[in-house]
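Work Package 4 report. The design task specified in the project plan requires that, given a folded chain encoded as structure tokens, an amino acid be chosen for each position. We show below one input record used in the internal validation round.
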């Protein structure tokens, strides 16, 4: 079988086609302190400057060895776009949303006519960083664009009342989801226009275990489907990551048409594979208790365990975002295990 470029290999796998071996990628957060020190580019500054964001994202490939480059590192730029107050991150910690802006549908009116490419917004920093990376690596490497999913964005802009709102104010909840999904589609396609060839949707609070099957089917599936359909129309495969134990929700999650589902360490990989029909399962080394807090020998052993559970029907990857203090050698042990797995 002919040798593939990393871009060809990942896209073929995501499309369910045969390849020579497993791609070695991470679809969640990739930044670490080791990489920051290696390229002299650090959080939080790198989150706000396109050249720095690109340089640090590139380090996931040049320093660690991932066969893809993923941006950005955090999931707050979207809420910040709409005026939510953000607590800035540190060298070791990502930023977080601390103040919300929507209490009624009237609060959406000031956002009419928004532009995701607005140079005054951090979304434009992400778009420019993707362009920098695509211009340099786009023929060879997959550039993985990413953003928070529409359900979690709805929670970011409305606050913790969101979970009660979808249960007691259906019309309001669906209208908010229409709004955040429209934004998600515009932003995702802008990333594709900038050079993203694969897309990662991070929707941590859109959890089957949090809201149950009925609400997931009504408030998540159709909106994820709209977003994924838009990406597929552009020929871009998509992976969906939702935190927590998603085992019993995987079959429902797959109905949105997503190409791959990233599962965290609370999910048994073999069980996950058995729950889906077509979707690739991505995961699921524990980012804390394996990748960060153990050694190379343990990472190798855990990688072999997960690879056996995936049984050629998934990708070895962290179960969630990489902890910023994770040693490079541990990540490289996972990467080598993935690269040595042949289909």
């Amino acid at each position: 079988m002919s040798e593939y470029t990393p871009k060809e290999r990942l896209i073929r796998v995501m499309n369910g086609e045969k390849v020579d071996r497993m791609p070695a990628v991470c679809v969640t957060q990739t930044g670490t302190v080791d990489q920051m020190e290696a390229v002299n580019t650090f959080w939080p500054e790198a989150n706000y400057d396109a050249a720095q964001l690109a340089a640090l994202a590139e380090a996931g490939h040049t320093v660690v060895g991932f066969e893809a480059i993923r941006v950005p590192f955090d999931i707050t730029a979207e809420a910040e776009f709409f005026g939510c107050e953000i607590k800035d991150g540190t060298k070791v910690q990502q930023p977080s949303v601390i103040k919300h802006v929507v209490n009624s549908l009237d609060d959406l009116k000031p956002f009419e006519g928004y532009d995701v490419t607005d140079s005054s917004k951090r979304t434009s920093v992400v778009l420019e960083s993707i362009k920098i990376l695509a211009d340099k690596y786009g023929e060879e490497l997959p550039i993985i664009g990413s953003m928070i999913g529409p359900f979690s964005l709805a929670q970011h802009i409305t606050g913790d009342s969101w979970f009660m709102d979808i249960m007691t104010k259906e019309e309001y909840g669906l209208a908010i989801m229409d709004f955040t999904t429209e934004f998600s589609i515009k932003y995702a396609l802008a990333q594709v226009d900038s050079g993203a060839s694969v897309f990662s949707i991070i929707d941590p609070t859109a959890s089957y275990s949090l809201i149950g099957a009925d609400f997931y089917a009504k408030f998540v599936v159709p909106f994820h489907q709209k977003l994924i359909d838009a990406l597929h129309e552009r020929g871009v495969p998509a992976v969906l990551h939702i935190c927590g134990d998603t085992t019993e929700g995987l079959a429902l999650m797959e109905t949105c048409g997503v190409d791959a589902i990233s599962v965290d360490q609370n999910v048994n990989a073999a069980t996950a594979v058995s729950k889906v029909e077509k979707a690739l399962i991505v995961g699921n080394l524990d980012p804390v208790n394996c990748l960060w807090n153990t050694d190379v020998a343990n990472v190798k052993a855990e990688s072999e365990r997960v690879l056996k559970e995936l049984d050629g029907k998934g990708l070895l990857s962290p179960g969630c975002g990489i902890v910023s203090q994770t040693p490079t050698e541990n990540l490289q042990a996972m990467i080598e295990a993935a690269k040595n797995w042949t289909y």
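Residues 10 and 23 are 6 Å apart (CA to CA). Validation will be extended to a larger panel in the next phase.
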